[in-house]
Amino acid sequence: MSVTRDVELGAVRDLLVRPTRASITFLDGDTVAIVPARVRFVDDRPLVRLPADGPDLSGREVVVLTDDGPWWFHLRGASFRGTAARDEEEPGFVWWAIALRRTLSWDYGAVREV
Which helix (H) or strand (E) holds 28? Predict the structure, then answer.
């Protein structure tokens, strides 16, 4: 017997439509950088907006995290691991497309035995 909090991505689809919080994590030299970001989704694939003078993520492995919930049993989220590529620009910002390799989603309110 094991217990899981993992759910199908569709169970947290509202977080893709309107992410409450989002961040992107990547290696910056010898350290791990975590940066708040604006995220939008196209066909369940994240695009991340960062300031134009921000880090150059071209070809870097990144993890995009979007989550919601103020209390333990309300915690829900999804993470997307992949490689970043410059996608489009707008004044002062760059959108980075993530070529996905792994997606995880969870809902602590759905903890159950499997």
Answer: strand 21-28
pLDDT tens-digit readout, 41-61: 998 889 999 999 999 999 999
CA gyration radius, the chain = 15
Does pTM surpass 0.70? Answer: yes
Q: Which DSSP state fits 12?
A: G
Domain spans in the chain, listed from the N-terminal domain onward: 3-107
Cβ distance 108 to 73 under 8 Å?
yes
Residue 75 burial (CB < 10 Å; 0-12/13-18/19+)?
Answer: middle
Structural fold of domain 3-107: Pnp Oxidase; Chain A (2.30.110)
